[in-house]
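WARN retry 2 of 3 for item q-0093 after timeout on previous attempt; input resubmitted unchanged.
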Amino acid sequence: MTYLERLRALKSQKAAPPGTDKTDKTYRSRGFDSFVSTQSNPVSEFSRVLAVLESRCPDLVDEGRWQQAVADGRRFLAIWGDRAGALGWTARDLFGLQMPPANPHPSYSRLSRYDETGLIWLLRGREVVALTEATAVIRSSTGAITIYRRHYKPALGPVGDSLEGLEPPFGGNVGR
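OK item q-0093 returned
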C-alpha cells in the first residue's frame, strides 16, 4: 500500500490511526511538544506524526503555516521519507517545535527558534533537492539554495577558538 493510500485510509477512519498509544495523547495534549518515538520503523513514525499533525493545528502556530507544513510534510515523506529514516533523521528533526513558555507573550511564535524547529516547518512550499545525514538542501522557486542543518550549532569561530589568552587590542594592560 502506498503512503498516500495509507494516509487516505487513516483519514477515512474515525478511529485512531494504527500504532496509537499514550504518546499520541501526549502529542495532542501538549500541542506537539513531545516527539518521543515508540516505534522502531522511522518511516511509520514519520507517517504517524504527520497524521497527528493533520488532525489539528499545534498551539501557538499560525493556521496558514500549519496548513503549509502539512502539505510540505506529505510531499517530503512521499519523496524523502525512506531516505530520511535510513539516514537517522527523527520525527523531531522533521516536525519538531519549540516548547512554549507557560505564559507566552501575545506576539510569541513557536517557529521563531531555528535551532528547535523541524525541517518541515521551514520548507514553506520549497522543495528538498538533496538529503544527507546532517543536512537538507532546499531550493526555492527562484533557484536559490538554502542548507538546513539537522544539528544546528551557532558558529563561534574557528575550531579551537576561545577567549583564553585574548590580549587587549593595543597590547599591555589597558584600563589598569
